[in-house]
């Protein structure tokens, strides 16, 4: 059905690194950039001349061009300005995070203001450019992956990012599901498996059953506040406190020192994971009160590192318990464990996972590339619609509706297969009522304040009558992207109104159009030469 | 795509609301979990919307989407023993037509509705609602007073009583300062 030569790409849009893949001769292949790099830092650096640098060369600017270089945008996408994650980011990020309309988050670079989807769209634009450069022609369609535990706001915002980058997003695909697809693709296996996905900023676990061509997600659980960055933070705190004790200077008070510290911590984490020891040395990290330059030196052993992060590792297993429970399974019923995400290279993770599940993890899977590969398989399959495999995914969070007194009512349970819909009848609350307002939430608490508000939905134009006399049927749908749609109808007249629930701080159609034009006009300063 | 399938899908979408979940998944009422899963996979292979994403016929695509959503709904209900038992009773009874689509824990919802029953008299309702908003704002003493007032209008309302007791308890345990 696809035009010959038409292609859809698979993009793993990560917190720290992104990766892009296409299907070549029936096999997924990661496409390196012109400099042979296969993963690309999800960092966007705005240069003085108006061009934009994305990827590993942009990452080098985190220190030299700190205020104009944005990283870890995925931690902020689809969040409200008042959320804890945003507060936390404001304290540590060198770039300026400001409040936009309706509690939204914006990033200010010089005199320009960007929404989070606009920032992510620049990373996507780079991924698109890498493939276009490789193939020599334009690509327009993509599957973009997200953490399985992303809520509707975060999915919606990621989809918007794709559109802004000039891509038709065929699917928002869950990262663990993509990994499972890459693993089981073409193998005709029947297995139960768990995908343990610890990324830069998020943790996901999905339990799946593969029945030849069918990939059924039995359950998923996660923590969107837990990732490799938190491991870096632990090293950072340890280094900073050591320095404070030794020299009486707190490096964390200066955002420039903080960035140097952060970079050194990330490197130390990788070194200690690979070599069992990390020698940390940062020259000229700060100046003492007399103006002489000071260096930071320290040695981190594996035992010390493991002690620092043990509680974080334990936290992932609480989430694993939840996923197994959701799948009504015990760890020993699983046939395979797949590790995804850079931090899963750490021996402490590998050992603990082996211990928890009581079996060895699957070898021969690249934790940095497997998600993008799965995305490209799915992208190709959605294009040609041959039905070679079927992904049966679930919604990670319970969908709820706000009721009287700050409570919520369950509409669709977590771990329900999607797409799904459920209708509910409501009546008016007072005589002559002209409008009803429905608030939609996602979360696991019956208290509205403890759930994430997805949006408000107003319905008017129904028959006006006495209290409780007018019946309104509201249909909640979760589509194959995990995105929520709501329609309401007057039962008597059948009059319908529908809308995709949009976060009140989300982008309007006009804003997306304008952002897409701006994105198209932006020139990427690509590669080494530009840095 | 084969034309026979298109006709079949359109026809199935038309009668969807007259079928029970067993009929939708094409399984017997006493099918085993293994049979149920096999049926779910079989129907997924036939109706999964991914296969039809590029289909130009919007109407047909929507019909298929509607069928697949119902397949998922049926599977969610039947794979759970307690839901399945209740559902089987529902669709075997005289109200079959009304109960073809499983409504989760309808008793619980009834209970909730009762809980939210805000009184039969206008004055009782007024004080009760005031009490509820006091509770939400953690003004427990004021909440207790309002529930007591509500009870003077409707002394038999169990819900009012329960709330008054709840408020009274909270007043006692309230250690907040201001």
Q: Cα-atom Rg of chain A, whole angstroms?
A: 24 Å
Contiguous helical run count of chain A: 12
SSE pattern of chain B, N- to C-terminal = HHHHHHHHH
End-to-end Cα distance of chain B, whole Å, is 71 Å
Mean pLDDT of chain A: 91
Percent of residues in beta strands of chain B: under 5%
Helix-strand makeup class of chain A? alpha+beta
Shape of chain A: globular
What Rg of chain B is obtained from the alpha carbons, in whole angstroms?
25 Å
Taken from the alpha-carbon principal axes, the silhouette of chain B is elongated
Give an account of the 3D structure.
The complex is a heterodimer of chains A (531) and B (178). In chain A, 31% of the residues lie in helices and 31% in strands. Chain A contains twelve helices and 27 strands. In chain A, strand 5 and strand 6 (52-54) form a beta hairpin. By secondary structure, chain B is mainly alpha-helical. In chain B, helix 3 (33-47) runs antiparallel to helix 4, helix 7 packs antiparallel against helix 8 (140-153) and helix 8 (140-153) packs antiparallel against helix 9 (158-173). The chains are: A alpha+beta (531), B mainly alpha (178). Chains A and B meet through helix 11, strand 19 and strand 22 of A and helix 3, helix 4 and helix 7 of B.
Task: Put the structure in a nutshell.
The complex is a heterodimer of chains A (531) and B (178). Chain A is α+β, with helices and mostly antiparallel strands and 531 residues long.
Features:
heterodimer; A: 531 residues; alpha+beta; 6-stranded mixed sheet; 12 helices; 27 strands; B: 178 residues; mainly alpha; 9 helices; 0% strand
